[in-house]
Design brief:
- By secondary structure, the chain is α+β, with helices and mostly antiparallel strands.
- The protein has one domain.
- It has 4 helices and 4 strands.
- A two-stranded antiparallel ribbon has the order 1-4.
- The structure holds iron/sulfur cluster.
Length: 109
């Protein structure tokens, strides 16, 4: 099973996206230490507010657009789910080419 997941997880397919979303949910809620360490050790850059991560698989219902058509989160703050708060937390999780974050080639749980 692990080999099957490892094979499909990094792929840019609907299956790969779904596996990453599940992994994001699992680690974000049950292994917050891994997320924090991966961000600290491997993530560089900043969010450029492209909003692409709010439309992975489906468009988030809390995604809004301001007067300049820039995306914003309608529930930004404590209500924001771990999946959104942590994206992207490591190289495996990162799947959007235009994302302002990049990763040193480490991590990958
Ligand atoms: S994809 Fe990256 S740069 Fe774009 S909104 Fe999400 S975190 Fe920010």
């Amino acid at each position: 099973m692990r080999a099957w997941v490892d094979k499909h997880l990094p792929r840019r397919t609907l299956l790969g996206q779904t596996l990453r979303k599940l992994r994001r949910f699992y680690l974000g809620n049950l292994n917050k230490e891994y997320i924090a360490q991966a961000i600290k050790d491997t993530r560089k850059g900043d969010c450029n507010r492209c909003g692409m991560c709010c439309e992975l698989i489906y468009k988030c219902p809390f995604l809004g657009r301001d007067a300049q058509n820039l995306p914003f989160c309608r529930i930004y703050g404590d209500l924001r789910p771990a999946n959104c708060r942590n994206y992207p937390f490591d190289a495996v999780d990162s799947e959007i080419d235009t994302c302002g974050y990049s990763f040193t080639p480490k991590s990958g749980k």
